[in-house]
Amino acid sequence: MSDQIQFIVEKLNQEPFRKNYNLITFDSLESMQLLQLLNDVLGEIDPKHAVDIREELPEQTAKRMLGLLGILKYKPPGSISDLSAFRQGLVTGSKPVIHPVLHWLLQRTNELKKRAYLARFLVKLEVPAEFLQDDTVADINKQYEELMEAFKNLHKECEQLKTSGLSAAEIRRDINAMEEEKDQLIKRVERLKKRVETVQNHQRMLEIARQLRLEKEREESLAQQKQEQKNQLFHAEQRLQRAQLQLKEMHHAVVDSKPESLMKKLEEEINFNSYLVTEKIPRELESKKNSTYFLQKVVAEPAMSQSDLNVLEIKINEVNAQMNQLIEKRMMKYEPIDSKFSMYRQQASIISRKKEAKAEELQAAKEEMSSTERQMLQKTNQAHELEGSEVLKGDEFKHYVNKLRSKNTFYKKKRLEIAEITAEYGVLQRTEELLKQRHEAIQQQLQAIEDKKGISGYSYTQEELERVSAVKSEMDEMKGRTLDNMSEMVKKLNTMVAEKKASLAPVIKELRQLRQKCQELTQECDEKKIQYDSCAAGLESNRSTLEQEVKGLLEECVQEESNYRYINCMKTNLEIQLQRAKEEVKAYVSPDPQERRKAIREQYTRMILEQENLGKKLREKQKVVRESHGPNMKQIKMWQDFERLMECKRECFLKQQNQTAIGQVIQEGGKDRLVL
């Protein structure tokens, strides 16, 4: 109980309650304060219940709270009489009733918020059958049910979107970025429109550009359709190749197999499937049904506390002790006649377990084989996508190997040709080197002759002059062409400048007038702005003073209202206490013994006497237990020794029985050999 109260206090001190309780202040809360606290927690779960209970009758409060707790599927512990006591305790604000409800609500606040939200739309209104005979009412009820189903579907989609990772902040950022891009695109389009309007026949050009865009989009769609058709054709060819491979494998299987082997395989499959259908699957189904039944039974029961769990553990220990006693009795009544049957039973159980294990292994092997086949198909598809061909088998692979061999011979021939060309290239390179050497020797001889004749450098100068003259002629041609182009460009630029000046002259005149007008309007705007700022400052100061006055009056009103409610609540509490005191005095003074027994004083005196008697009995019982503790411990030790002795005898008996069984088997085997 203390753990429960501590959990409640911790949760109430956190957001969104912020009550700042401790264990003492929480335990000292009165009934009305506890009810208001419970109502605040319910109001946090369902905002419709965020009301002040002092403004409504206790019956209305209890009815409203019971309705919400029923929607939230709260199950109070106990039977029907306890349920009536729970309702009475909820009306009076009893702590043993309010504390478990608070603990249950604060444990699962988020889940209960969701349930309360869904209950607003999914709690079906029960319409009487006689009203449903009317067509209008029936149609409205049908529409109501359809809308309820639509709400369920939308809520599921919303939950899926929430769990998918998309947040509202990211969506808002994306929307803002898209809006900014849209504004930029609009501005660019406006600028381009202004540029295009100055061009002649811009409407016709825009129409041609629009038609070009449409044709390009059509071309892209046709290309996409073509690609899709190619993919479909590719997949169809893949399916055809797979079907052909399967057909070949089936042909090979039919050719290699015999009717006897096929019948044997079919019999094995039939036996295995019949074992699964008749023994394994029904047993698993029965176990699943039992586990489901127990789980449903556990779910249907109310929430258990630690005390309930302790009681269940005690019961389980008692049942286990009874089972052990029954097993011991059975072992004591054990007869040697049943030994053979027990051995056969053990063998049968071992065989059945082996059979089940082998069946599970076979089923796992089949599942593994099917998964391996699926992986093989995936790998073949991936290989086809990467290399463009299927994995070859049989004759196709042999044909592919022959093709590779022919390509290998062709490759060797080409390699020989490349080697011959490389050798010829080496010869030509050597010839070139020799010719260069001869050219250098001839140049040296020519230079020596020129030195003898006194005209050294003549051949070199002649070559340079020829080269320079060729370069000069090329440069002259390029200069002539560039001068012609520049003159044409200058003419074009002059004409364009003249046209632009002529077209811009009226616009410049209008622009001058608009500039003058803009200056006048700017001066007028500045004057008006100064007037507006001064007026706005005065109004803002008046508004701030009025707001402060209104705020102060509102605070006074709230304070007075809270004082009134507090005084009214204290008055009602005092009236209730006074009424209780009058009833107590009346019952205590009454000559009727029945009325006197109803008095609280008499009840407490009776309870005190009962507790005193109970304490006396418990002390006597404790005394008896202390006196009998030593003999009982000795008796327990004797029983433990006796249990060890009996266990040792049982083991010796089982060993002797196994040895006798083995001797009987050996004797029977010897007799069979003698007969043979």
Automatic annotation (TrEMBL):
Presence of keyword Acetylation: yes
Domain IFT81 calponin homology: 3-126
Regions annotated as coiled coil: 137-246, 309-382, 504-563
UniProt-listed Pfam families: IFT81_CH
Keywords on record: Acetylation, Cell projection, Cilium, Cilium biogenesis/degradation, Coiled coil, Cytoplasm, Cytoskeleton, Differentiation, Phosphoprotein, Spermatogenesis
Cell compartment(s), UniProt: Cytoplasm, Cytoskeleton, Cilium basal body
GO MF annotation list: tubulin binding
Biological process, per Gene Ontology: cell differentiation; cilium assembly; intraciliary transport; spermatogenesis
Function: Component of the intraflagellar transport (IFT) complex B: together with IFT74, forms a tubulin-binding module that specifically mediates transport of tubulin within the cilium. Binds tubulin via its CH (calponin-homology)-like region. Required for ciliogenesis. Required for proper regulation of SHH signaling. Plays an important role during spermatogenesis by modulating the assembly and elongation of the sperm flagella.
Family stated for the protein in its record: Belongs to the IFT81 family.
Protein name: Intraflagellar transport protein 81 homolog
